[in-house]
Amino acid sequence: MTVTLLHYYAADLPEGAQAAIAGDWRDELAPYPAWALKAAFAWWISVDNKHRRKRPIPGDIAERVRVEMAEILASEIKLRSFKGTQRSNDRPAPEPEAERKKPSKLGTKNILEQAGYRVDENGQIISA
After folding, report:
1. What is 14-31 written as a DSSP string?
2. Quick one: 54 and 109 in the same domain?
3. Taking burial as the number of CB atoms within 10 A of a residue's CB, which of 18, 40, 59, 64 is the most buried?
């Protein structure tokens, strides 16, 4: 940050004012990772920024940091939206094979009959 701001003229300020300004920068930019801050400052002084001739304020850099982090922020939002939801087809996940219970002969017979099959008392299909 200090290198970026050296590109702009600054009048001599009392030490207390400089400390207050530094505090504003710290408070605004503290939540962001260093790589995103570095990218935002590099962009600010680049030809891609039409406002590069103006000295930035903390909010200018924070705004650009959000652009630099857009993919990450979008991914976080997407992950939060999936938290606590079912699979995409809204059916619960199947039970693991070891925990799945085998249906009884009567249960099997009922299932086959509901599907349109005739079943004898031993569970053998007689006809469809």
Report:
1. -HHHHHHHHHHHHHHHTT
2. no
3. 40
Same domain, 48 and 111: no
CA nearest 4: which of 28, 39, 50, 33? 39
User: What is the number of domains present in the chain?
Assistant: 2
| Domain-embedded: residue 45 | yes
Are the beta carbons of 55 and 8 closer than 8 angstroms? yes
- Alpha-carbon distance of 113 to 128, in angstroms, equals 9
Q: Which domain holds residue 58?
A: 2-82
- What is the C-alpha to C-alpha distance for residues 82 and 90, in angstroms, rounded to an integer? 12
The strand ranges marked E within the chain are 118-119, 125-127
Residue 20 lies in a domain: yes
Q: In tens digits, what is the pLDDT along the chain, a chain of 128 residues?
A: 555 666 666 778 887 888 888 899 999 999 999 999 999 999 999 999 999 899 899 999 999 999 999 988 888 888 888 766 555 555 665 555 555 566 677 777 777 777 777 777 766 677 65
User: Residue 92 corresponds to which amino acid?
Assistant: P
